Amino acid sequence: MTTARLPLFPLNAVLFPGLVLPLNVFEERYRAMMRELLKIDESQPRRFAVVAIRDGREVAPTAPGMPDPTAVPEKGPAAGFGPDPMKAFHGVGCVADAASVRERADGSFELLATGTKRVRLLSVDASGPFLTAEVEELEERQGEEAGALAEGVLRAFRTYQKRLAGARERSLAAGTELPDEPSVVSYLVAAAAVLDIPAKQRLLQAPDTATRLREELRLLRAETAVLRHLPSLPAVDLTQAPTSPN
Known about the structure:
Layout: E1 3-11, E2 20-25, H1 28-37, E3 47-52, H2 85-88, E4 92-103, E5 109-125, E6 132-137, H3 146-163, H4 182-192, H5 197-204, H6 209-227, E7 244-245
Parallel strand pairs: 1-3, 2-7
Antiparallel strand pairs: 1-6, 2-5, 3-4, 4-5, 5-6
Helix pairs in contact: 3-4, 3-6, 4-6
């Protein structure tokens, strides 16, 4: 398997291959990362790894109970992630290619990146101005009956979307032709379904496309059954991940 060392961007979100990730970058450790990425010529990929934070919170731990207002915030690339950052992150993430990076007047950045390939975290280095990680590329295997499963998932997904009251003109069902390549279907549905981070993470790290599609079929049927008994939900943009501040 191919390995590489890449800048590491932990998020309270899961990025999937083929999906767009808009980011607002204002913390110094991530500003430093963006400045480093901008040194790479535009003709070359500006790659970094995105991983989901295990506990869903990128904050330094405090004593039990109410936060201590007198506590001094941690600083540095690993602030908030404990003495061993590897334990704070899920073990499988996604490489992102920053096609668009814009620096604002205040030194923060607007970033638009696209997920490319899944990777496994091998190690995390906090010795520099931002986190870096050694990652190993994960092969995407189809598995048995991936094609038939993809067709079933697309049917279930359309039914699920119809139940998402308020998913109007910006939903995938609104005049958008959905793909039929099984792995693309599996990642698109994983990103678009309204699921919590642990569920999305399980889909990202599925051993093959067929396993991911089977799990999506189960989740979509369960969620659709629940939606039948819920009042209207607010509109949701299902075509890309939400903008993630750091």
